[in-house]
Amino acid sequence: MLALISFRSVSLQRFWAISALAAAAAVVFLATPARAQEAADAPLRPDTMAARVAACTACHGAQGRAGTDGYYPRLAGKPQEYLYHQLLNFRDDRRQYRPMTHLLSGLPDDYLREMAAYFSEQHVPYPPPVRPDVSAATLEAGRKLALDGDAARGLPACASCHGATLGGVLPAIPGLLGLPRDYIGSQIGGWKNGLRRAAEPDCMADISNKLTPADIGALAAWLSARPVVEPYAPEPAGSLRLPAECGSQAQR
């Protein structure tokens, strides 16, 4: 598929130029006494997908394993269709984050699908979780929302859509574990505040609008504190009956 995409595309040339700069910066960063051998063991060969997505891994970590700053999320192993539609959403301004929108502006759908396929095929170990500095009561509140929901407020459990292990469901529902606490909280807040949107009916926006700030904090704390137990993978397509109609899933 990559061979079918014109190398004369201005947008692709810009994306590759940014990737080349990011790759060079990564080499400089890694070429410290502690990391020099690691850099030597895994050089980026030119004209490979790994080299072309260096602009992505500069923030999201090698192979998309997550950034080190506690915000940029893991891309590795996410469902391909989920990643593809998030790239579309950033490019088409349905999901608000200016650096991503600028980076992806003008890139063709086929190339975004290639990028999504690359990251979905990366399987790297998850780091141990960081226990958040919150009370046991807050963690318990997050656990109940994630696993049981709150029927009185019309809140389905996270597990009712994202799977019993919270590992996601094919083809396009992502896993929720192994993500930074700040990222989880900011994304739920983004749904709630209209900075992140999906096809109507936007079930995540509907759910997020029912969550209080305390709910969001509790969910982010509990989810980020959960260890990832391997094998951690999305459940098969059709294995769950969603509790609400979701336009983003109806598109698949």
Automatic annotation (TrEMBL):
Q: Which SUPFAM superfamilies match?
A: Cytochrome c
Q: Which GO terms describe its molecular function?
A: electron transfer activity; heme binding; iron ion binding
Q: What Gene3D superfamilies is this protein classified in?
A: Cytochrome c-like domain
Q: Where does heme c 1 bind?
A: 56, 59-60, 100
Ranges for domain Cytochrome c:
20-123, 137-227
Q: Which InterPro entries match?
A: Cyt_c-like_dom, Cyt_c-like_dom_sf, Cytochrome_c4-like, Cytochrome_c_Oxidase_Subunit
Tell me yes or no: is Heme among this UniProt entry's keywords.
yes
Stated name of the protein: C-type cytochrome
Q: What is the lineage of its organism?
A: Bacteria, Pseudomonadati, Pseudomonadota, Betaproteobacteria, Burkholderiales
